[in-house]
Amino acid sequence: MANLDGDIWFWHHNRSECYYHIQITVKYRKTLLDEKVTRVITEVMRGFKDRYDLEIQTIGYDQDHVHILCRFLPKYSGGEVVKLIKSITGKKVFQEVPEIKKQLWGGEFWTDGYYIATISGKGNKAVIEKYIKDQGKVEDLKQLKLFEI
C-alpha cells in the first residue's frame, strides 16, 4: 500500500493534484478475488504509471470487488481509465488463472458498471466548498491589494 504524500504530479507542463476513488466489481458479483487473483491484478497495476501515466496509490480487495485510489492527468476521462484498468487486468487474470473462466460464462471478468469519485489533495468537499464560497469577499480582496491608491 502506498501513502498519499500530497505532492503535485508534474507531467510536461501540466500539474495535477486530483485523486480518484474507483470501485469495480467482479461479473455476477462472484467471490473470485482470492490470493492468486489479487496477486495478478496487483502486479499488472504496478506497471500502469510508466506505461499509461496512471499512478495507483492504494488497492483494497474484498471478495467480489476492488477499491482503487489513483491519480492520473485530466487528459484522460475517468471512464477511459476505468476501461483501461478493467480490460488489462481482466485479460491478465484469464491468462494467469484460466480455470476462472468456468465461473464466468460471459467471457468478462468485471461488470459493466463502476464507481468513481474525485478526491482533492488540498482537502475534503467542505473545505473546497468554503474556499469557493469565500472567493471575492472583502477580507480576501484586502489581502490581495498590493498598493494603496
Write the layout of secondary structure elements.
Layout: E1 9-11, E2 14-16, E3 18-25, H1 35-46, H2 48-52, E4 54-61, E5 65-72, H3 78-96, E6 115-120, H4 125-133, H5 138-144
Antiparallel strand pairs: 1-2, 3-5, 3-6, 4-5
Provide a descriptive summary of the structure in words.
This protein is an alpha+beta fold. The chain has one domain (9-122): Transposase IS200-like (Alpha-Beta Plaits), CATH 3.30.70.1290. It has helices at residues 35-46, 48-52, 78-96, 125-133, 138-144; strands spanning 9-11, 14-16, 18-25, 54-61, 65-72, 115-120. Strands 4-5-3-6 form a four-stranded antiparallel β-sheet. It has a two-stranded antiparallel ribbon with strand order 1-2. Strand 4 and strand 5 (65-72) form a beta hairpin. Helix 1 crosses helix 3 (78-96). The longest helix is centred in the middle third of the chain and has 19 residues, at 78-96. The radius of gyration is 20 Å and the shape is elongated. Mean pLDDT is 82; it is low at 1-6.
